[in-house]
């Protein structure tokens, strides 16, 4: 497909608008829309939150009568189904009088996929699909994964030394990475639906797992992730920060039937949800955990656990993306805590290999990320 230069320009602007919804639209995708008439932008908007008007509707409202005969640029196929809290967008697009619609990507949701585009074409509108599609798919990769797999997109995040350690033999880890890396991690927490740690991290570090605002990282961010602990035998202390520190989001503990009933009831009286899951090998089934979270509309999660939880997620083939913050520090020693625990593979061929690897400098650290 030959892409017109001005189409790519306006779609790029629409994608930038869509990205403003990061961390706020779940379980909906991020969507941006721009209305252009005679080479001038007359309406622009993005989807702010689930249950609120969609980007196309907002942009067309802003354009008003100027939408007649104009072109609508939208980063995701307009919806046409009724099984949601807001009216479908396709009728509003048709009624607005726009003569052309440019769509970055089809919606992978079976309730929408191709249907919205087909309705627009049946109504006589010119529809172009695929402008800046790779960028649109990258922006909503978590949503696309959730729609297809029914499980949230998993990012494994860790701060580590140059030799791959995340803590000393005594468990000390604050702070391996620099301030700029920690600031970015808090922004990441604000962008996901849940942060998951293992009980070892809670016992060793006693984290609050709240998202805090840069630069000082003292004030709570407006958007908070659900805080989740994988604790197969409910060893968590009732005084742990993750249970007592105030946050706008809830805390969930994933455990097994083997956990003491009295501990479970005590946590529930404290207002904590305890999720009892299947436990092959005596440990919480991470696949079942993600399935439950997906059913609850959680589109993305970040694993901030220790080496054992990291290894368990990787062994279960549940990690989609790895993001490592590497400090220019060498810790050394055979008893330091490595970023990936568990038994080492016997062959290099069995190692986990990252694809589409990117690196960048962030303050004094280097960020290495890639897809699994």
From TrEMBL:
Pathway per the UniProt entry: Cofactor biosynthesis; riboflavin biosynthesis; 5-amino-6-(D-ribitylamino)uracil from GTP: step 3/4; Cofactor biosynthesis; riboflavin biosynthesis; 5-amino-6-(D-ribitylamino)uracil from GTP: step 2/4
Keywords noted in UniProt: Hydrolase, Metal-binding, Multifunctional enzyme, NADP, Oxidoreductase, Riboflavin biosynthesis, Zinc
Recorded superkingdom: Bacteria
Chain residues that bind NADP(+): 159, 175, 201, 205, 232, 306-312
Enzyme nomenclature, EC number: 3.5.4.26, 1.1.1.193
ATP-binding listed as a keyword: no
Catalytic machinery residues: 56
Cofactor note: Binds 1 zinc ion.
Residues annotated for substrate binding in this entry: 173, 189, 209, 212, 304
Cofactor: Zn(2+)
Binding annotation for Zn(2+): 54, 79, 89
Molecular-function GO term, any one: 5-amino-6-(5-phosphoribosylamino)uracil reductase activity
Catalytic activity: 5-amino-6-(5-phospho-D-ribitylamino)uracil + NADP(+) = 5-amino-6-(5-phospho-D-ribosylamino)uracil + NADPH + H(+); 2,5-diamino-6-hydroxy-4-(5-phosphoribosylamino)-pyrimidine + H2O + H(+) = 5-amino-6-(5-phospho-D-ribosylamino)uracil + NH4(+)
Transmembrane parts of this sequence: none
Any one of the GO BP annotations: riboflavin biosynthetic process
Ranges of residues in domain CMP/dCMP-type deaminase: 5-128
Family: In the N-terminal section; belongs to the cytidine and deoxycytidylate deaminase family. In the C-terminal section; belongs to the HTP reductase family.
Reported function: Converts 2,5-diamino-6-(ribosylamino)-4(3h)-pyrimidinone 5'-phosphate into 5-amino-6-(ribosylamino)-2,4(1h,3h)-pyrimidinedione 5'-phosphate.
Annotated PANTHER family: 2,5-DIAMINO-6-RIBOSYLAMINO-4(3H)-PYRIMIDINONE 5'-PHOSPHATE REDUCTASE (PTHR38011:SF7), DIHYDROFOLATE REDUCTASE FAMILY PROTEIN (AFU_ORTHOLOGUE AFUA_8G06820) (PTHR38011)
NCBIfam families: eubact_ribD (TIGR00326), ribD_Cterm (TIGR00227)
Protein name: Riboflavin biosynthesis protein RibD
Organism: Nitrospira lenta
Source organism phylogeny: Bacteria, Pseudomonadati, Nitrospirota, Nitrospiria, Nitrospirales
